[in-house]
Amino acid sequence: MHISEKVKRAVFALLCAIICCISFSTVAVYADEREIYLGGFAAGFVLNTTTVEVVGLCDVLSADGIGSPARESGIKAGDIIEKVNDVEIDSTSDLNKALAQPYKNYTVTIQRGGELMNLPVNPVTDKASGQKKLGMLVKDSVNGIGTVTFVDKTKNVIASLGHPVTDSAKNIMEINGGSIYSCAIYGVKRGMRGNPGELKGSIESNYMIGAVNKNCSCGIFGEVSSELDTSNLQKIKTANIGEVQMGKATIYSTVDSNTTCEYDISIVKVDAFNKDNRNFVIKIDDSDLIDLSGGIVQGMSGSPIVQNGKLIGAVTHVFVNDPTRGYGIAIDKMLNSY
């Protein structure tokens, strides 16, 4: 069969285009390979919530005696303050401003068990401060200890935890910003079968290392503070989950003496498509870590997992009945979250 010169030229041009596309695709893959700073150090988190929750009731000393208007009105611990006289309440500051208004009557709208209730209440003037009080303790923030996974100075991002902060109903908590602080670890409660351990530390509120802007299924993310010194942090490349192998790996964590240490683990299962981001099952092999903490404890969430010199993920959960085993999230998921 005779093939014309025109057809030959068209086929040749098509082959050249395919070869060029393959070449450029290969270059793009390598160009996208990221280099970031390895974490492994402890951090304290203070997250501003978008709700004001009643955490307790207390008495107020006023000219009329001692009492709690909140208790008398039927407000209970666990209630969410939604409004005061139709004024939206998103923070304790909003609540204090609403109480300072010269209303003749006050109605507090609360959320309890998913239902809204309007409760009439009569604030009293506290003798000590001269301010109107309801006689209740409220909070508009949550705090805790975790571990930084990595710092991406190119994109000015600090990433941690590897899992979300959730409310009492296990829903991802909506936040209105927050702060990440340096944290001094002063002890550890060993994990035991059926009783997870935890890191004990104090948040150093005078040393902020990041400003939180996101709480999602893959962790807590924020902007890196200018106070964070990365000169002593190790630069590391990342690996996608397809490169992860069953077998030996290490984690970096700060469990004792405020020193970030490397501990031996094994990757015993890889699940790239796990819907809960439990992409790895890991086993602690390091006898020093087991002697010290019993294995994985609360506060180690976010501890980076490294294999073959590359960052592959972060520790997220511990098995309640076996503290030497736990889950990890693939670093791909965290990198794609910001």
Question: Unreliable segments (pLDDT under 50, ≥5 consecutive)?
Answer: 10-32
Q: How many distinct helices?
A: 5
Largest sheet: 18 strands, mixed
Radius of gyration: 27 Å
Shape: elongated
Count every beta strand, where a strand is a DSSP E run of 2 or more residues: 22
Quote the average pLDDT: 90
> What's the N-to-C terminus distance?
57 Å
Proportion of residues in β-strands:
over 45%
Structural class designation: alpha+beta
Protein name: PDZ domain-containing protein
Organism: Candidatus Coproplasma avicola
InterPro entries: PDZ_6, PDZ_sf, Peptidase_S1_PA, Peptidase_S55
Domain Peptidase S55: 115-338
Give the topology.
Blueprint: H1 5-31, E1 35-38, E2 42-57, E3 60-62, E4 65-67, H2 69-73, E5 80-84, E6 87-88, H3 92-99, E7 106-112, E8 115-121, E9 124-125, E10 132-133, E11 136-152, E12 157-160, E13 175-189, E14 198-216, E15 219-224, E16 235-238, E17 247-254, E18 260-270, E19 280-284, H4 287-293, E20 304-307, E21 310-319, E22 322-330, H5 331-335
Task: Report what the structure shows.
Residues 115-338 form the Peptidase S55 domain. Pfam families: PDZ_6, Peptidase_S55. InterPro entries: PDZ_6, PDZ_sf, Peptidase_S1_PA, Peptidase_S55. This is PDZ domain-containing protein. Helices cover 15% and strands 48% of the residues. By secondary structure, the chain is of the alpha+beta class. The strands form 3 sheets. The protein has an 18-stranded mixed sheet that branches. A hairpin with an 8-residue loop joins β13 (175-189) and β14 (198-216).
